[in-house]
Amino acid sequence: METALEVYNDTEMKSPETQPIKRRKKKSMVWEHFTIESVEPNCRRAFCKGCKQSFAYSNGNKVAGTSHLKRHIAKGTCPALIHTQDNDNNQLMGTPYTPKSDTPRRRYRTQNGSSYVAFNQDKCRQEIAKMIIMHDYPLHMVEHPGFISFVHSIQPHFDAVSFNNVQGDCVATYLAEKQNVMKSLERIPGRFCLTLDFWKSKVTLGYVFITAHFIDSDWKIQKKLLNVLMESYPEADEALSLAVANCVSEWGLEGKLFSVTFNHPASNPAVENIRPLLCIKNPGILDGQLVIGNCVARTFSSLAKDVLEKGKDVIKNIRDSVKHVKTSESHEERFVELKEQLQVPSEKVLSLDDQTQWNTTYKMLVAASELKEVFSCLDTADPDYKQPPSAEYWRHVEALCTFLKPLFEAASTLRSSENPSAVTFFHEVWKTQSDLSRAIAGEDPYVASIAKTMKEKVDKYWRDCSLVLAMAVVMDPRFKMKLVEFSFSKIFGEDAGKNIKTVDDGIHELFSEYMALPAPLKPTSEGGKVDGLSDFDTYIMETTGQNLKSELDQYLDETLLPRVQEFDVLDWWKQNKLKYPTLSKMARDILSISVSAAAFDYVFDMEPREMDEYKTSLRPETVEALICAREWLLENDASSAAAQMSSANIKTEA
User: Fold this and answer.
1) Which of 118, 298, 401, 641 is most buried, by the most CB atoms less than 10 A from its CB?
2) CA atoms within 13 A on the CB side of 262
3) Any coiled-coil ranges, and where (predicted)?
């Protein structure tokens, strides 16, 4: 598959001397600072060697000349040349030249007549590309008559750009941002955990969004969208592994991939194809659960879907009642008046649900349930209201809400936290399984039938993911193996010992893998100077016998920390990384594992996301460039805003 770089850039830099013989030799000194590159058929651009900014050069038979290139390096606008000039005491590659006969850049006097605004065609094109990317506008908008008229009304001298032009500009923006992302990932000390979020399309193509999750040098959990890859045959056994292999190769993650989580149904061969790509080569560790085939968001949505299916007749009756109130102003007025007469204390507001988002159905049921007294009497105040829910239906609504509430709260955690930890969902899944077991044993057959259907899926998720979730719990100094032992004894009964041993063996085997890695440099005292006491450290280890225990066993044997509400497990490991130099590396990677592959905006979706028809009409490389660049640019803006706010707060405090 051709990459965006191969499509839009001629990777072999051409000097002026290698241009076709028909073109006269370029003698201008401007070519000391620029190279010419093809960005698309019949279109070449000049790239500054210093700052890499691109400028128009030729389009077909039309050549832009060199005046604008000279202005870039002669007027002090190139940041790279400015830096060089500062370092060389204003001696910039000889004496700066000033164009003599070139037409000056267009400048326009402002209303107060005191300043000028320079028009820059290339800068405008860059901003148009950025606007299209950030606001998800269609590329074709630059050819729309309304857009062309609008731009010309602002700047008559702006040369209209085509679809191909702006497509190339967007890809160029993506490639520039990609280089920044790659540099930032090179500085990450630990390994990477990937999530694969599959989207479908109306044309049977699949798209996989690959996101890297990792912990940075400051021990903060981070994530970064790396790829949006089109899969022609998403159901094929090779689809998953090819997507992961492409990502690993493209981003240089060989030997750095710790786990993979995905939300797409996959066969056993498809899962096994991924394992060789992981850095942990022993497939038996934790029963191979470092490849996680059950995304927790999709599991919750599947459970909610089962609940709603069981109560579909009841839900339809409630939805019709809410629709009666909300689609007529007079009906709603009567409902509100009756509520006030009955003095119903609920503050809930009725709203119709979006049947593609199960949380909206849950909220509709909760609001209706709290207002059931009003609905029960509404036919007396509103003669148009014909079918109030029966008392049995209201009991069923309460049962449905009882099942949906823990799912809603757990999924809300996914949505409210950018990177929810596996520790959180160990608690959620364990609690859900326990609640369902009690519901099945209850006397209400309607409740028991729902609980039985749900428990089958929860049991499967627990079998597939409990070990990797438990591993994260062990890395929390408030719980360690104690919570695993307690919860497994409740869930597995007689088989608890076997499952506890699997977790304990897996943790120790994994630690052995980390011990086999090259030893890190011993920490030095402040300022980087050796304090001369390394022999003393060895003496302490030998005389106290601490060397007889591994870091892992020392950690597990220590007393549990108090279970305070606001506890930052990553900060704890940051503070204790010198005490546990090897174990902290393992903890860093384990706590990077993401239990959900779905983006937090989509955790309540009833079905997989679908790529819109416009994007599926574009080239796969262009789709990836638009989506990834948008994510990165928005992250940059958010980081800049946060930095400005932090700076403002510091100034205020000062």
Assistant:
1) 298
2) 23
3) none
